[in-house]
Amino acid sequence: MPLDKTALVVDALNAFQIELPSWGFANTGTRFGKFLQPAAATTLEEKFSDAAQVHRCTGVCPSIALHVLWDFPSDVQRLSAQYGVRAGAINPNLFQDQIYKYGSLGNPDAAIREHALQHILDSVQIATQLGSRDISLWFADGSNYPGTQNLRHRRRWFEEGLAAAHASLSKDQRLLVEYKPFEPAFYHTDIADWGMALSLARKAGPKAKVLVDTGHHLPGCNIEQIVTWLLHLNALGGFHFNDRKFADDDLTLGSIDPYQLFRIFHEILSSNSPAVKGIAYMIDQSHNLKGKMEAMVQSVVTAQELFAKAALVDQEKLAAAQQSCSLVEAEELFRGAFWTDVRPMLKEWREARKLPSEPLKELKKSGYMEKINKERGAKNANSGSSYA
Amino acid sequence: MPLDKTALVVDALNAFQIELPSWGFANTGTRFGKFLQPAAATTLEEKFSDAAQVHRCTGVCPSIALHVLWDFPSDVQRLSAQYGVRAGAINPNLFQDQIYKYGSLGNPDAAIREHALQHILDSVQIATQLGSRDISLWFADGSNYPGTQNLRHRRRWFEEGLAAAHASLSKDQRLLVEYKPFEPAFYHTDIADWGMALSLARKAGPKAKVLVDTGHHLPGCNIEQIVTWLLHLNALGGFHFNDRKFADDDLTLGSIDPYQLFRIFHEILSSNSPAVKGIAYMIDQSHNLKGKMEAMVQSVVTAQELFAKAALVDQEKLAAAQQSCSLVEAEELFRGAFWTDVRPMLKEWREARKLPSEPLKELKKSGYMEKINKERGAKNANSGSSYA
Amino acid sequence: MPLDKTALVVDALNAFQIELPSWGFANTGTRFGKFLQPAAATTLEEKFSDAAQVHRCTGVCPSIALHVLWDFPSDVQRLSAQYGVRAGAINPNLFQDQIYKYGSLGNPDAAIREHALQHILDSVQIATQLGSRDISLWFADGSNYPGTQNLRHRRRWFEEGLAAAHASLSKDQRLLVEYKPFEPAFYHTDIADWGMALSLARKAGPKAKVLVDTGHHLPGCNIEQIVTWLLHLNALGGFHFNDRKFADDDLTLGSIDPYQLFRIFHEILSSNSPAVKGIAYMIDQSHNLKGKMEAMVQSVVTAQELFAKAALVDQEKLAAAQQSCSLVEAEELFRGAFWTDVRPMLKEWREARKLPSEPLKELKKSGYMEKINKERGAKNANSGSSYA
Amino acid sequence: MPLDKTALVVDALNAFQIELPSWGFANTGTRFGKFLQPAAATTLEEKFSDAAQVHRCTGVCPSIALHVLWDFPSDVQRLSAQYGVRAGAINPNLFQDQIYKYGSLGNPDAAIREHALQHILDSVQIATQLGSRDISLWFADGSNYPGTQNLRHRRRWFEEGLAAAHASLSKDQRLLVEYKPFEPAFYHTDIADWGMALSLARKAGPKAKVLVDTGHHLPGCNIEQIVTWLLHLNALGGFHFNDRKFADDDLTLGSIDPYQLFRIFHEILSSNSPAVKGIAYMIDQSHNLKGKMEAMVQSVVTAQELFAKAALVDQEKLAAAQQSCSLVEAEELFRGAFWTDVRPMLKEWREARKLPSEPLKELKKSGYMEKINKERGAKNANSGSSYA
Lengths: 388, 388, 388, 388
Fold this sequence. Notes:
4 copies of one chain form a homotetramer.
Chain A: H1 5-14, E1 20-21, E2 29-30, E3 33-34, H2 44-58, E4 63-67, H3 68-71, H4 76-83, E5 86-91, H5 110-130, E6 134-137, E7 142-143, H6 151-167, E8 174-178, E9 188-189, H7 194-204, E10 208-213, H8 223-232, E11 236-241, H9 258-269, H10 275-278, E12 280-283, H11 292-311, H12 315-323, H13 327-339, H14 343-352, H15 359-366, H16 368-383
Parallel strand pairs in A: 1-4, 4-5, 6-8, 8-10, 10-11, 11-12
Antiparallel strand pairs in A: 2-3, 7-9
């Protein structure tokens, strides 16, 4: 029986939604400076407005991840109702305050660890009030020079802090523990890889899961294999999507190595782990140069295209070719899905749902960007130094 | 109270022994060819003889790791008695036979998996007969091209195979599970990192531990941090030491980044994990160019020197500097140990034990190399093609 | 005026031919062993026969690169006439003989340097006799340990040797100088990057050019940028195509990062350097697991597809978007070409030229593989040890 | 004749001075934030004061590199006279202004290129007025996404701009052209490696040289080999020293891989290139966590120690061992110098010159840090946001 390609793509796309980061609409940069965009959002209302516009163009972004330090206190419920976008993952900030110079949960100073924990507990509170399922934990903790910190003590403090955080979760909430090999710490990061994140999550409790940021891996790392392991161990909480060529470049997803993201999606779509259902698909990018709105719409569309391509793999035939070690046949089958131009299928799928058939064109046509450029441009012009 | 440096070094050295690999005395090479050495060992007796000579020069290498395919069947007990070197870890070979083209324990063909398992069980037998504690498992299993193999199925087969192998261990035996990110497989390796090795070891049983080969990591990886995690989780079985600049270069230990090995040793010496006692320190290098005997003695001496340096770190002062985040002070203290020239202390330690004070010079002086060059040279000249 | 896509693709494909390596049909492997294929070619006649079959299926492989050590002496002219495939680049071998243990042109021993030079001069002779334009020089020269060799002396010897080789070229011949950062040398390679290769080529003379092997770069390296520089400096001699995820993995081209090869082709197609005309497109892969014939046909087809995709980029529109820094627009335009499914266009192009419309299927259908499996299988079964 | 170690070390140290960067005394950070230090310098006078203090403690830092954007206009002559530290290299800033969003000399907008060039010409002016020999050029120019910029046009613009800059140099001045593979651009950097920097320098003119920043290389890169090439081609202008484990981590020099810096120094000390004399040794680090004064003194001392170790290599014996390919002997000799504890020799050298014998202790004892902590702390407390 030939594959019903359209049905496969439709099913996959129906099940695929992606969360936008509130900070993705604000000015960000590299350590060498920020290039300010007049249309960049500076209030939470502007971020909700932008996210809503992306959702309007794409139809698959019903939620927005929030950042506790930058987005709170605020009237999220009102904004949520007004803009039709709900609060997504809650992200504590444990790296920006001056007290975190030597770490947060891993700081040698017990008072600072306590302070960091309290911030996490407050974040859980916020999540509870907003009905958010996930608290995303990224720690900048680490050290820059061999011998300057005790790796073992810091790990113990992390175990203690995460267990305390876990204890405060309500029934359906989850802690997502992110890992990163380096930056901003350059000798060791306390949670450097998926093995460490997993071990800490396990110790914290069953509601702690691992968060995979696609940019947080050493050169050459096979990320899709890590994804299959986390699914296997029922420990995959979700993704922070972005792309990279060198370090944690935070480029728009699929822009450097689209084949890799296709492979990650294929591992998910071919898995029968119950963990698949719970995966939070989130974008975490830093658009220093691209226009923020365009970059976000472009990323969502790219994610959908790669997801659709992955859905086109004929699993049955592939299984047979893999089992018989028919390498070229298996590869051609697998890669054939990647080479298929799914853009027409996505257009159809959108039209069937009364969505704009070409989100990027729709964004341009909508006049939204001119509007925010003009409105915010004047306002922002007055506020800012040229360098942050 | 000032540190008694000599006592620290003496204690450390007294507790440090390192196992030699039988294959380290034989001709090896790169995929571009082998450069044959006339003195290379071609029989197990020659390997025992060489290992005994290294032990004679250094006094810290009482055992030799054996390779089932290349070293058996043979009269190990006799050789062991005759040369005064005991059998160490037993290494099955699961990569060289033509049937392993698509894998061993991860092969889609059940018969081949069975064959591989049987070879492991046979190796456990051999270990039991020889009184060897450790069976070292390195798997070349993986795939070269995306989509050509099913990562999930292969993992399941590994879980089954390792559990069966574990079941056959006698009371004091251990399975050491090695990981490697790539080579000879270039897209995915079934056991690619310490997280996967640990998970498989856990699933197999309590006597399965992780084996860290220092060359088997992606660029930039902080190996000492992995070591502390494995110690913490009581899962560190041992080391295969060698050094690298690029990929798995298999260079002599400490030759490219000696500071890193110093840091690994420091993590071990400052740990209070019960796992420290069980660590098997083993060399696993491939000397394509250096003379095998010289390279081995040089490696043992370098390992001792770096171990002694690590022992010199003033743990108490370091703990205080780390706790107060006195970074420069902590680093200077830590690195000061590395900068200390321990060669005179090692000389003393050796002399106190009636060992040759300078092992490399002793090797040269002993006439052993001339002897084997001559004896084996003629024999080997007749046997070999110039390229393998 | 809208782009005439078909015309662009047709023009590009008409100008694109790719040379096959004789050694790509023989058994090869990794340092952990070779998996022998019954159909692997063991004589030069078999290699010509295989190359001819690939040419028959694809129509774009009229030449075969030859390897002096493995393929000569032999009756190339007869084979060439009989199989309809001409001799391409001539590849000296300067790494396999035991005398090259410490290098060839960079060896501290003047007699060995002389020997290596003589082999290159002989290779130039062979090229002259066969009417081959290019002599491809890859050197394994380097060292494994800091301090063990004098980088400066070795460079001088290379300068002398290459100048002498250049002096022996006939009017239309070229020396192609390849670079590689590591392997089989693991501390330094004498010609480690394009800057060193270029400098040596310049010193040798105007007929020396740089050869880019896509697998010979450090992680993250932007290869297409190097290609534009070499074109700019009129120093790009050609390519050895293959793909990699980690080190020099020698995987089939485009199998890991197809977007990168697309970008390389785009730089060539959008260049107006006179050097474009002289580019030698060559495959240099090592198929340890894939069937050699299938892998070769697959590679040729993939190269054509990526070349065709690159030809689809609307240069005029792209130039405008680049000039105005319309990043998202430029990227969508650029990547839109990559996402276009060119397979139907290639089919048409082939049919218009009376070539098999689907080369891989044609190969299967032709019965050639069964034939060589059977004929060579019996022969090879008798000859080989299981490990090389 | 045995080596006179003391004489070798004394000669080397006498010839070794290192320039401090004015920005190394100011607050800096990562893209995730800056940790503000109360004692950080915020005026040029404070930077001169700090540099003078480092010079007082070490005796080998008579000059300070200046940054045009941050340090000018100002009364450098007065400061120089007052603090006894002269102006060193002049560093234009071509990355921070908002107009440089898409590049400086490589910007598609001719007016911005002109603006950037004018800034360089102004910097040359400043250098002339101050009697500074070197203008150090680091460009952040590049792009983040494939296809968004034209690599060829940008190169041409660089060629034009650098030639114009070169034309404005006075007789003894030099342009130092720095390269960097990535960051802040993440797909391509216009001057990505030494080959590109060299080619641009050559095109600009004979007074343009290459500047090697030790942190600006891809993983595994053999930096000392590049250094020998630049010396050979008479194109090495100088160094920006720092250390790294992952990307461009900007850690204090020698803190991660001290053996590598030793090897770089060895290549310089064993070279007979006339270019050695002109090498500008400069520090370029970013101390986010370490105290700035301590880190600077520590770096200077470490550089001296590694330079002294490199001077201890017995060149004559090494040459013989290298020539005879006595690998282990050569390595032991080479590495023996690295293992030698040179701290006592440095102490002697300092005492003989009436310098503080232990610079770090001297710094602590001097009370300088308490003083600036107190004086500047109050001032800075009022000025700053917590995040930049």
